Amino acid sequence: QVLLAAADRQLVRCERIDANRARLWVQLPTVPAPVSYRDWSWHDITVTVPPTVAATAKLCTPTLRLREGKVRLDLPFETTVEAAPLSGHRRAIGADWGYNTLLTAVVAEPGPDGTVIASGRALRFDAAGVSRKLDRLRQHRETLQTKVTHLERLAAGRRSGLDLAAAAKFDLLRQEHRRVCARIRNLGRALAWSAARWLIDQAHATGATVVYLEDLTSMEAPGSSRSWNRRLSGATRGVLADAVRHLGAREHVA
């Protein structure tokens, strides 16, 4: 692949022809090992812009990839998004956090005398399967951490350190622990973005222009069990809130 984002206008230029086409001017080498300016040549490439890219979007420097004998183009673009107003809304979605059901939401409208009228239909984002998978991974991570800590104490209590078999086991446990941690992070992030996408889609489907999320910053941690504390510590509320803000700004939802 050819990463053109690091090049300036002396090597690459991308401009729009019309709403459906763009032209890429790029200077590429004509030999495997160029040594002079004569070994470079300008290429004129006409690109079909997909309909998902607005006509007012600014096209950025692409990346060229060779796939099955054809040149593929990764074409990023920028769009100007105005911030959604924080007042004047007539319909809203309020979302509540949960342990088993990640999000439970309801549609509400302002009623007479300053009251709020909510529909009796609850909207639920149920990701029980992924949540159980995360619980199993967190339990596995704690088991691995317990074994790693035990071997660290053994190594600290011996002058000669661990023997070869124990050292090999120690390295294997640490590698597995890092792999499980990465798996938990990736799965939790994917779950959070999926829930955020669902929430913004529900706002569009119900005609809501603002989303309210429950604020848990002032909640004190109760004396829960070990399993509940593990689930609370691994919650993806921060990532989900950031994802809702990002997707809401794109869709003009406050």
Tell me how many strands there are: 13
Strand content: 15-25%
Total domain modules: 2
Query: From the structure provided, what is the oligomeric state, counting identical versus distinct chains?
Result: single chain
So what's the overall shape? flat
* Residue windows where pLDDT falls under 50 for at least 5 positions: none
Element-level helix/strand string: EEEEEEEEEEEEHHEHH
* Alpha-carbon Rg, integer: 27 Å
Q: What is the percent of helical residues?
A: 25-40%
- What's the main sheet like? 5 strands, mixed
How many helices? The count is: 4
Concise description?
The chain is an alpha+beta fold. Helix content is 37%, strand content 25%.
Written overview of the protein:
There is one protein chain. The chain is of the alpha+beta class and 254 residues long. It folds into 2 domains: 2-78, no CATH class; 92-250. The chain has 4 helices and 13 strands. The strands form 4 sheets. Strands 9, 10, 11, 12 and 13 form a 5-stranded mixed sheet that branches. Strands 1-6-7 form a 3-stranded antiparallel sheet, with no helix packed on it. Helix 1 (128-157) runs antiparallel to helix 2 (164-206) and helix 2 runs parallel beside helix 4 (237-250). It is flat, with a radius of gyration of 27 Å. The two termini are 39 Å apart. The model has no long low-confidence stretch (mean pLDDT 86).
Question: What are its keywords?
Answer:
alpha+beta, 37% helix, flat, 254 residues
How does the SSE layout of this entry go?
Blueprint: E1 2-3, E2 12-16, E3 21-29, E4 40-48, E5 58-59, E6 63-67, E7 70-74, E8 77-78, E9 92-97, E10 103-110, E11 116-118, E12 123-125, H1 128-157, H2 164-206, E13 210-213, H3 226-233, H4 237-250
Helix pairs in contact: 1-2, 2-4
